[in-house]
Design goal:
Layout lengths: L4 H5 L32 E2 L11 E5 L3 H11 L12 E6 L15 H13 L4 E4 L7 H7 L2 H7 L3 E2 L7 E5 L7 E5 L1 H4 L2 E5 L1 E5 L3 E3 L1 H4 L15 H11 E2 L2 E10 L12 E10 L2 H13 L7 H8 L13 E5 L3
Parallel strand pairs: 1-11, 2-14, 3-4, 3-8, 4-5, 8-12, 9-12
Antiparallel strand pairs: 2-13, 6-7, 9-10, 12-13
Helix pairs in contact: 2-3, 3-5, 8-10
């Protein structure tokens, strides 16, 4: 049965900024105990395999083949997706930009992850984000909705009714509205694009988690490093795949000028989200661990290894042998 793009993209919904206006940080008063939202932590990692690298860097190909090779080096999608799983793919789909402007994840990279997950036996593959700009226009202009559906994925609009208030249990982040696929999927694949960010130096896998939240997310910038570490503790993904085919080197995160974009033809994938972000930040912007306070905080909490990129567990390859 075929569902039209119009059905998927225009079935209603509101922009993220209108959702969950009652969100608050930990310093605000709590609700009465009998109505307090549940504390939720999601750990969707797969078992570590010492025979395989935890980080794979693939260079020199087109987006789909880069993604395919990176996941092969980590053991193949069958390591991460079991038959019957509901898989959620989280690209960066925040901005009203074209693929050439590199403010969103490359649509061909998203499509390949969808195809691989379905081939591994996923019952369905959902693709979603909570954009900064107007939702329907972002989903269309980014090219991601079209590519994801063509590959067999289902695009989820961030409608108001799909947010649930939960207690993230963080040091800074407590009760916030979270889009329900992030609370229900069996596996979550984080698929950010590598971009410059004026507050954190770079926006990669950790910053991509902002796109699961409703509410007034700009408030999180007041303590951005702590909030990013809280989100990483709340949702530990099955796999992180950083699209660095085109990298927005300056004027991120929204970009706009193709003069700020570098064609790097790279994908960085791994099972350790701290290591993935650390590697990408150093590779493209020369940022060391001391420049990335949110990664230091995450490593201190045991969420990953900052210096994995320097170990034997990193495999670098050309996409074409």
């Amino acid at each position: 049965m075929t569902t039209s793009r119009r059905d998927l993209l225009y079935a209603g919904g509101v922009a993220a900024g209108a959702v969950g206006l009652g969100a608050w940080l930990s310093g605000r008063s709590r609700r009465p105990e009998d109505s307090a939202p549940p504390v939720v932590k999601r750990d969707l990692r797969v078992a570590r395999d010492l025979r395989l690298p935890e980080l794979a860097v693939i260079e020199g190909g087109e987006p789909a083949e880069l993604v395919r090779r990176a996941i092969e080096e980590l053991g193949g999608m069958g390591r991460f997706v079991a038959r019957g799983d509901v898989v959620l793919v989280k690209p960066n789909m925040a901005w009203d930009r074209t693929p050439e402007q590199a403010a969103n994840t490359n649509p061909d990279a998203v499509a390949e992850v969808v195809r691989l997950a379905l081939a591994a036996g996923a019952r369905k593959v959902l693709v979603t984000d909570v954009p900064v700009n107007e939702t329907r226009r972002v989903f269309e202009r980014s090219g991601i909705a079209r590519a994801a559906m063509a590959a067999g994925g289902q695009v989820v609009l961030p409608e108001a009714a799909r947010f649930r208030e939960v207690d993230l249990g963080g040091a800074v982040l407590r009760v916030w509205p979270v889009l329900d696929p992030f609370l229900e999927a069996d596996k979550v694949i984080n698929l950010p694009v590598a971009k410059h960010h004026d507050l954190t130096g770079a926006t990669l896998g950790f910053k991509n988690w902002y796109g699961m939240l409703g509410g007034l997310r700009m408030r999180l910038h007041q303590r951005i490093h702590e909030s990013l570490a809280d989100l990483a503790a709340f949702l530990r993904p099955t796999l992180t795949v950083v699209d660095a085919y085109r990298v927005l080197m300056r004027n991120g995160p929204s970009g706009g000028s193709t003069e700020d974009v570098a064609l790097r033809k790279t994908v960085i994938a791994g099972t350790d989200p701290v290591a993935v972000d650390a590697y990408a930040a150093r590779a493209f912007w020369g940022l060391d661990a001391g420049s990335l306070r949110y990664l230091e905080l995450a490593a201190e909490r045991g969420l990953g290894e900052l210096h994995l990129a320097e170990s034997h567990q990193v495999h670098r390859f050309l996409a074409l042998r």
